[in-house]
């Protein structure tokens, strides 16, 4: 099996992180992987806002948690037992799970492919992170982290163009030492249709 396929199969969402920051060289590699992702029309419109400020990430993650209303997990239906999400554990108050690096990906408002552009970049970055021994988690509905006066003030502080919006966040950090790497849920049947 190719090394790339090994990484694709190994990558899992990580939500339990060490407090120590990721290495700068690794961050640069991960960002490069995002920058070299495909983009609609080759426009390269995604803006990657990298925040490594612990207090700020915590505060935005808490705002996001307050603004999220996930369908809570049941015994039969859950996101992850090994790396519980905010839908699995109501005690989790930070939707960014205390990750040391939070990258908010912004894209133009009213652009048909804004989400697509961020998603393909994020997948490149998650695979690059896995290859470097760094855990990651894709966080959808990025704008909910900024949906209060504090979040709005942060957008101004970061000089985010007002015609851009926060599509998603990508969390990065070292998986909590001692945690077993999570296993993938079995793949569902019927997802591939040969036509
Ligand atoms: C579009 C999208 C949005 C997601 N949003 C969240 C989120 O808000 N919070 C979270 O903990 N995980 C989020 N995830 C991660 C998924 O829960 C995770 O990919 C899924 O449970 C499968 O697990 P795996 O990534 O380990 O294979 C998101 C993933 C995608 C693709």
List keywords for this structure.
single chain; binds flavin mononucleotide; four-stranded antiparallel sheet; NADH Oxidase; globular
User: Which sequence of SSEs, written as H and E, runs from N to C?
Assistant: HHEHEHEHE
- Looking at the overall shape, the CATH architecture is 3-Layer(aba) Sandwich
Give a count of the beta strands, DSSP E runs of length 2 or more: 4
Q: Strand content of the residues, in percent?
A: 5-15%
Gap from first CA to last CA: 27 Å
SS field, number of helical segments: 5
What level of helicity do the residues show? 25-40%
Number of domains: 1
Cofactors, ions, other ligands: flavin mononucleotide
Please name the CATH topology. Answer: NADH Oxidase
Q: List low-confidence stretches.
A: none
Strand order in the largest sheet: 1-2-4-3
Mean pLDDT: 97
Q: Helices, strands, pairings?
A:
Layout: H1 3-10, H2 24-35, E1 47-51, H3 54-67, E2 101-108, H4 114-131, E3 135-139, H5 149-157, E4 164-173
Antiparallel strand pairs: 1-2, 2-4, 3-4
Helix pairs in contact: 1-4, 2-4
The chain binds flavin mononucleotide.
